[in-house]
Amino acid sequence: MLTLTVFLSGAVLMSLEMVGSRILAPTFGSSIYIWGSLIVVVMAALTLGYYLGGRIADRYPDLLVIGIILAGAGGFIGFLPFWTSHVNAICGRLEPRLGSLMAASAFFFLPSILLATVSPYAVKLAGRNLENLGNVAGRLSAISSTGSVIGTLVTSFFLIPLTGVRNIVHSLGLILLLLALLIIGRPAGRDTRSTPGLFWLRRGVGLVVLVLIVLLVVFWRSTAFRALFSQDGVIYERDTLYNHVKVTQYDSLRYLRFDNSMQSGIDLNDPLRMVFRYTSFLHLGVVVCPQPERVLFIGLGGGSAPMKFLHDYPSLKTVDAVEIDPEVVKVARTYFALPEDPRLRVVTQDGRLFIQQMSDKIARGERAPYDLVIIDAYSASTIPYHLTTLEFLQAVRQVLAPGGAVVSNIIGALAGPYSSLFRAMTRTFDAVFPQRYIFPVYGWDGVSDTAEQNIILIATTDPRYRSKTVWEEQAEELFARGMIEEEVPLFVRNLVDDPLVFQEAWLADVPLLTDDYAPVDTLKHPLL
C-alpha cells in the first residue's frame, strides 16, 4: 500500500504541475512567468511539505493519517476547476508576474504541501530499524520519482491533447480520494482495532471521503453536460499540446482564440473580408514585391490571410503555411473555410525548423526561394523567442529571392514604457536587412503616443530606401491597376517617417535579440 501511495502521489503532483500551465494560460498567456510561478510555488510547497511530513510522522505514525492527508489533497484538487476562473479574473488585474504568482499559489500551494508530506511519512512507516533505513528511503524516493516521470510524460504527451484540462484535474482529485478511501477502509492493526475512538474516526473520515467522491462525480457530470449545451457562443473548445483553442461565433462572425489571445476571424457572409484590420496590412508586402509567385506564412491561425492571398494574386504558384499545432490546421479547415487549393501547402512543423530545412533545399537548388515571408506567429501574450532572434532572421533572409521582403506582424508600442520589445525586434531586423519600414495599423501620433497595437514591420533585401512618397505612388498604381485589391493607398499613409525612428538613440537602450540572449518576456513586461 505504501508503494502504491508514494507512486500515485508523485504522479499526481507532477501531472498537476504540468496541467497547471493550462489553468493559468487563459488569463496570463504562455510566458516564462507562468512556468516560473509554477516552479517557485511547487518547490516552496515541497520544502514545507517535506519538513511537516517528517514532524507529523514522528508524532502520529499511522497510515490513517496519510489517508486523511490524501483526502484533503484530493478534495482540493478535485473541486479546483469550479473556481479557478474566478480567481484568475481577480489575479489577472495585477501585474503579470505578481498576478501569475498569486494565482499559482492559490491553486497549487496547499495540495503540493499535502502531497509532499507523503514521502517522509512513508519512510517513517516503512522503516523497521536504522540498519535498513537508507535502503527504504532510497527505494521509496525512486518509486516517487518514477511516478513523477510517468505523470509528467502521460499528462504532457497524451492527456492534454486527448481530453480537457478540467477532466484531467477532476480525475487527479478522484484518484487521490479513491486512494484515501482504500487506505482508510483497510483493516487496522490489532492495537488499532481495539481503540474505539480510532475506529469511529476511521468510519467518520471514510464517510466524508465517500461524500466527497459522490459530490465530485455529480458536479463533474453536470458541468460537462451543461458545457455541451452552452449558449455563450462557443462552438468548439479543446486543449492541444500548444494552446487552449476556442472557436466562438456571434451572428455571422466567427473567431479563433488561443488562451487569452484572439488569433483570427471570419465573416461567414463574406469570407474574404478581413475581420481584423492588421491582416489587410499584410498586403503592403506586395507593394514591395508585385505579382509574387511564392509566399511563405509562418503561423496559420484560421487561415484568413493565406486564403485572401490565394484569391487576390493569380500570379501565385505556391503558398506555404507553417503551423506548429496540428489541431489548429484541422480547425482552420473545419471552421474557417481554409481552401483545398493545389497551390496551398500546409506544413505542421515549427516555423524555424521549416526555415532551416528550406534554406538547405534552396541552397542545393531543390526549391525556389520565396518572394515574401509573412511572420504572423506572435500574439499579445505568446512570443516564441526563437522566432525573434538574429539567427532566425538570418535564416529567413536565406530563403528570400532577390528583391524579396519579410512582413512581420508585431504587437507593441513605438514609444513609452512598453516599447522595449518592439524596438529590440526592430534593432534585430536592422542587423539583418538593409531597409525596414514600420506601419502601425491604427496610426501613430508621435512620442506621446505610447499605445500598444498591431505594427506591421516590413524588411527588404533591396538596399534602396523607399520614401513615403514612393510608397504612396507605387501603392496607388498597383491598386488602380487591380493588382492589389486591399486598399493599400490608405495603409501606406501610416508609414512612420518620424525622425525619432531613424535615430540611433531610439534603439540604443534595447538589446540585439540572439539565441543566447532574447529576454522577450521581460521586454514585454519591464521590471521597472
Can you offer a commentary on this structure?
The chain is an alpha/beta fold. The protein folds into two domains: 2-228, Growth Hormone, Chain: A (Up-down Bundle); 278-524, Vaccinia Virus protein VP39 (Rossmann fold). Helix content is 54%, strand content 14%. A seven-stranded mixed sheet has the order 7-6-5-8-9-11-10, with helices on both faces. Strands 1-2-3-4 form a four-stranded antiparallel sheet, with helices on both faces. It starts with a helix and ends with a helix. Pfam families: Spermine_synth (PF01564).
Distance between the termini: 52 Å
Strand content: 5-15%
Largest sheet: 7 strands, mixed
Q: What is the CATH topology classification name of the largest domain? A: Rossmann fold
Count of alpha/pi helices: 21
Task: Give the CA-based shape.
Answer: elongated
Number of strands: 11
Would you identify the CATH architecture of the largest domain?
3-Layer(aba) Sandwich
